[in-house]
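User: What would this chain look like folded?
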Amino acid sequence: MGKKIASQMIISLFMVCLLFVGNNPAIAGDKVLLSIATASTGGSWYPAGGAIASIINKYVPGVEASAHPSAASRENIRLIEKKKTDLGMVMPDVAYFAQTGTDIYKGKTPSKITGLFSFWGIDLLIIARANSDIYKIEDLRGKKVGFGPPGSGSEAMSKRILGEYGITYKDLKAQFLSAPEQARALKDNSLDAAMYTIGTPAAAFVDLCTLNKCRLIPIEKEMMGKLLKKFPYYSESVIPANAYPQITTDTPALKWLGLIVVSEDMDTDLAYNIVKNISKDHLDEFKQCHAKAKGLTTEGMSKGMSIPWHPGAAKFWKEVGLLK
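Assistant: Here's the prediction, encoded as structure tokens.
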């Protein structure tokens, strides 16, 4: 009888432990274990996740973090919701749709994700051959235009922007290609122009512009304001002069910023310490993780958040005067 009672007590204790672990960050010994979901190992997000983990491990007491590859934005949100990861790297439009239950998340329960900070951006490059008569987005009508692969974030963003100009794929000759394929097609005149979200400068288009005269197509100031109001998950950008060979003027553009998101129930002090150490105290270390990180600033990492701030993050951003 005593053994039976003891066995029942052990089982009950085990079930209580499972409930505790299932609703909190993992705990090993006296340390909280944090998991950071990034993207594929070949991109720029994976090393960023590793750098975030390293800074947390060095400067946030009692916490041990590790980064792991994933299928990026939508998968990372799912992992956070299932309590299988703690921090996730997410595109701002996907985060917005998930948190509001709209667009690709229409009909689904809004996700309880919140933001910590943003990091480097990806520009929407709109490029045309210089010997074409394309000077503004409206001039794309009737032309052979390259877009990202169907269903990709690049293609979706291009489609949204064209829609605000009253242009659909029926109004032009659309081809859906990767960035290197677009550059080759522009070089051999099988495309007149291309739209692609890509880091600046992008090697494929640098090579194109080195031997071929091209033109970057700007987004005008009036339209920029309209687009940012309608699509709050995008941000204003400038592709600087000489980022691409033979292009000597700045070009106003749109971009999206990578976001670090967490569940709304992350401990407030933990969230505060993560943001403070990465975005301010040890930003110089974070800036060493990738070439794209070198231009990061504390102020810049407070921009472009498309979902509500986590309370711990909001506390930090208010302390440094970057959030009212």
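The longest strand covers residues 113-129. If you want, I can go into more detail on any region.
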